[in-house]
């Protein structure tokens, strides 16, 4: 892959809306054209060069582009929105909506993300090496469709409502997770290696949640369904002994599963 490097100049108090930072949009453009792509700073329309130094060469195929954001972009939103191919590496923290509706390619965040990372994601891979805040892989507010496909891995901790209204794909939290993970979940897989703050799977009607951080108090809508060993979900094997609970039976025709590793 060939690289296009963005070096942040400043992260202003008012957030930057920069959905143009995507291999699909950079494809076929030289540095000058990339620098003059329009972004919003608060309610003002400005250009990418006002906030980033850009270096690299013209690359025609988005699949061959690796965008490296070399620094903190904790006030820059929507990086990788609708991304279909290529790769983005963020060497620092990033603001909300990273990977929004992405359907392909890979985004690696070497720091932390704000809320709504991977919102309504369709495909591709999002890797967060730090922590993330609320609504990871969730829906838009008021919508009933969250993450549909792809993979999200968080090496640190996650906030509340991970996978809210999830209808496909996989989310893997290697640290702890806030309350209401998998709320309204319909399909897909959520894996939580650390502790969960509770109310996991509230109002879920399908999908699977694997909890490896030990026992937790489930909502009364979940029913114990026995012990299972070395479970396999969507072709992935989880070694060990697990207690399986079905639910949330507070909902009609619920067929979700929560597996809690026995320790």
Explain briefly what this protein structure is:
With 263 residues, the protein is mainly beta. It has helices spanning 23-26, 31-35, and strands spanning 2-8, 16-17, 38-41, 44-47, 52-55, 65-69, 76-77, 87-90, 106-109, 125-128, 151-154, 167-173, 187-192, 208-211, 223-233, 236-247, 256-261.
How many individual β-strands? 17
Return Rg in Å.
19 Å
* Structural class category: mainly beta
**Low-confidence region ranges:** none
- Contiguous helical run count: 2
Measured as a percent range, the helix fraction is under 10%
Q: Into which percentage range does the β-strand content fall?
A: 25-35%
Task: Throw out a few tags for this protein.
263 residues; mainly beta; 13-stranded mixed β-sheet; 3% helix
What does this structure look like?
The protein is mainly β. It has a domain of 147 residues. 3% of the residues lie in helices and 34% in strands. It is built from two helices and 17 strands. The strands form two sheets. Strands 5-1-6-8-9-10-11-12-13-14-17-16-15 form a 13-stranded mixed β-sheet. Strands 4-3-2-7 form a four-stranded mixed β-sheet, with no helix packed on it. The longest helix is centred in the first third of the chain and has 5 residues. The protein is elongated, with a radius of gyration of 19 Å. The protein starts with a strand and ends with a strand. The model has no long low-confidence stretch (mean pLDDT 96).
């Amino acid at each position: 892959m060939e690289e296009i490097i963005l070096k942040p100049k400043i992260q202003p108090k008012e957030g930057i809306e920069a959905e143009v930072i995507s291999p699909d949009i950079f494809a076929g453009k030289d540095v000058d054209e990339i620098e003059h792509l329009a972004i919003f700073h608060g309610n003002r329309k400005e250009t990418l060069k006002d906030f980033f130094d850009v270096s690299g060469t013209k690359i025609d195929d988005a699949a061959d582009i690796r965008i490296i954001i070399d620094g903190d972009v904790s006030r820059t939103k929507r990086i990788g929105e609708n991304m279909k191919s290529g790769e983005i590496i963020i060497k620092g923290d990033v603001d909300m909506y990273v990977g929004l509706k992405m359907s392909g390619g890979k985004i690696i965040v070497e720091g932390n993300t704000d809320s709504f990372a991977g919102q309504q994601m369709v495909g591709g891979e999002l890797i967060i090496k730090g922590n993330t805040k609320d609504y990871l892989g969730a829906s838009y507010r008021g919508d009933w469709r969250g993450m549909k496909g792809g993979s999200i891995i968080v090496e640190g901790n996650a906030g509340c409502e991970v996978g809210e209204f999830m209808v496909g794909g996989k989310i893997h939290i290697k640290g702890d997770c806030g309350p209401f993970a998998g709320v309204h979940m319909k399909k897909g897989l959520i894996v939580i290696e650390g502790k969960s703050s509770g109310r996991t799977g509230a109002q879920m009607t399908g999908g699977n949640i694997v909890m490896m951080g030990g026992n937790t108090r489930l909502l009364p809508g979940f029913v114990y369904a026995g012990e299972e060993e070395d479970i396999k979900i969507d072709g992935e094997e989880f070694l060990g002994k697990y207690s399986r609970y079905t639910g949330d039976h507070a909902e009609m025709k619920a067929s979700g599963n929560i597996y809690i590793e026995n320790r």
